[in-house]
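Homework help board

Subject: predicted structure for assignment chain

Our instructor gave us this sequence and asked us to write out the predicted structure in token form, then describe one feature. I got the tokens but I'm not sure how to describe them. Can anyone check?
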Amino acid sequence: MGIGQNCKGSITKISSSPPVTTSTSLTHTVNGSHHFKINGYSLSKGMGVGKYVASDTFMVGGYSWAIYFYPDGKSPEDNSAYVSLFIALASEGTDVRALFELTLLDQSGKDKHKVHSHFGRALESGPYTLKYRGSMGYKRFFKRSILEVSDYLKDDCLSVHCSVGVVRSHTEGPKICTIPVPPSDIGQHFGQLLESGKGSDVSFIVDGEIFAAHKLVLAARSPVFRAQLFGPMKDQKTHNIEVEDMQSPVFKTEGYEYLRESCPSVLTELLEYVAKIGEHSIISSCRHASEALDGSDNNGRRVKQRT
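My token output:
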């Protein structure tokens, strides 16, 4: 809650709402299928009510499943008048919610398959929940007398296709993206630029030797050079800066190699030995803009402009 003032001068309250966080629950199915061929159907008859022929186990959604076909049916009260078809959970230790589809394939090529499916339609109680060895299917899947004269049976063989959709749920919050940032190589580039001398617009004279540099880089690294090169006392004709009481090897070690290593502190050695002029030197120089900057570092070394 904040306080503001309207154009008439009266004070009004400005409401500020607390931040709103969001999350989303997502529920979907992980789908898979299995094809099961039953050869020698006529030989499987008579094995007994409640006994089944099982497919190999197959994995869907991280769980093991199997198809059970009952040639004499599953229920004694049906007197083996129907074949039964079920899908069973073969994994242990957890309950699983899933959707199923059991299809007896028409082998005449007419594609008149017998399909029982939970997919694509509303279920009053939602997906089925199965426990270990639990199964879901149809006791009266097909009347046996009709099946044996139909196009579903060919060469004493039945063909069953089963689809399983395992229900999965999870909650998502705001996505946080991370982008890996490679280590900076700006120092190496500054070192190469310094060594090449390209674009240099100022030079340091050290013990009679000339070292090319760049005003913008010097100004970015040192308030002293910023004042000298771009401040009120700047001299547009300043192209050379003489460093007194210092030997050139301080600046030149293995052919600028130390400059590469010290970047982006370009001319670090120079700044440490020369450019650490106290604030009083800068203030004094600003007050006397007509005078050239003539400061000294902690070791008494001098920096002088040369045009």
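Reply (TA_rk): Your tokens look well-formed. For the description, you could write something like this. The radius of gyration is 43 Å. That's the kind of observation they're looking for.
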